[in-house]
Write a structure and sequence with these properties.
It is a single chain. The chain has about 290 residues and is mainly alpha-helical. It is about 70% helix and about 0% strand. It has one domain. It has 12 helices and no strands. Helix 5 packs parallel to helix 10, helix 6 crosses helix 7 and helix 6 packs across helix 10.
Length: about 290
């Protein structure tokens, strides 16, 4: 047994994972942060499939969608206050002092850049060069709310829940690699009801067929690994995670990307994730702080 306050992690990783052990309720958090959105979103899905929906129906759908998106934030706030973590969370909402420039650049350009590389690769396989053209509008709808608002709100609200409490709650029990993999699976499940809401991005992906549905599911794993890498190497900056998520969302809607190209992007990101995990295995594979 190790003393209560012993910490045998390498210094660099110890700094990256400072205070994580104080986030102690991962199961309760994720049960509530998933169950509440599911109840709201499956109701919205049922409404979206009704014939000739009225403006009132669309307004209710939109409200349910927003409530489901905001629910994990409310759950996170409850746990943060109960566990006395408010000061720690506020100190890293933007970025701790000393966050490296490369972290911000990677957060901003990594996902959009990978999509452009995947597009170039797809052209080598005979896909249309018009994929580099800018999209006129968006590929999905969200009830009465403009799509661009959803593209902003989703990353902000999600990361205000996952990165203020959820991710660290998992990292208090397991290493960062397992934290990323477990969260990736939970996040896939969290998104499931959205695949049934007519017009939503996830529903559009489902309509494209099994391959693209599976690709969307698998793509969340490298997405989470790379985001958590930047999050922890950025001093647990919540804003770094938000920028990463925002850049991915808008990059995904910016060009006339063929759905098959996104399969190539997922393959590229999986390979990059393996490299990142291996190169920074100190962060990803070091066990959490051992306690008595």
């Amino acid at each position: 047994m190790y003393p209560l306050d012993s910490d045998h992690r390498p210094p660099k990783t110890r700094r990256a994972l400072d205070n994580v052990s104080r986030y102690r309720h991962p199961v309760a958090f994720y049960v509530l942060a998933t169950a509440i959105p599911w109840a709201l979103w499956f109701t919205a899905a049922w409404l979206s499939r009704q014939p000739d929906p009225t403006q009132v129906t669309l307004a209710v759908m939109t409200g349910l969608g927003l409530a489901g998106l905001a629910a994990p934030v409310v759950v996170a706030i409850g746990f943060i206050r109960n566990d006395g973590l408010t000061r720690d969370v506020l100190s890293r909402l933007i970025a701790p002092r000393g966050t490296h420039t490369w972290v911000w650049l990677a957060a901003l350009f990594l996902l959009p850049g990978s999509l452009l590389v995947a597009t170039a690769v797809s052209i080598l396989f005979g896909y249309d060069v018009s994929q580099f053209q800018l999209r006129n509008g968006f590929s999905f709808t969200t009830g009465l709310m403009p799509a661009w608002i959803t593209l902003i709100l989703a990353p902000v609200l999600e990361e205000l829940a996952w990165k203020t409490y959820g991710t660290d709650a998992l990292a208090s029990r397991m290493n960062v690699l397992w934290t990323s993999l477990v969260f990736g699976v939970v996040w896939v499940l969290w998104h499931v009801p959205l695949g049934f809401i007519k017009g939503y991005y996830q529903a559009e992906v489902v309509d494209e067929g099994l391959i693209h549905t599976l690709n969307y599911t698998v793509s969340l794993i490298p997405f989470v690994i790379l985001m958590n890498w930047l999050y922890y190497r950025g001093g647990r900056s919540v804003l770094v995670a938000i920028v990463f998520h925002l850049a991915a969302n808008f990059g995904n809607e910016l060009f006339l990307t063929d759905p098959d190209t996104k399969v190539i992007q997922t393959a590229l990101l999986l390979m990059l994730s393996v490299v990142v995990v291996w190169r920074d295995r100190e962060l990803f594979l070091t066990p959490p702080r051992r306690r008595a």
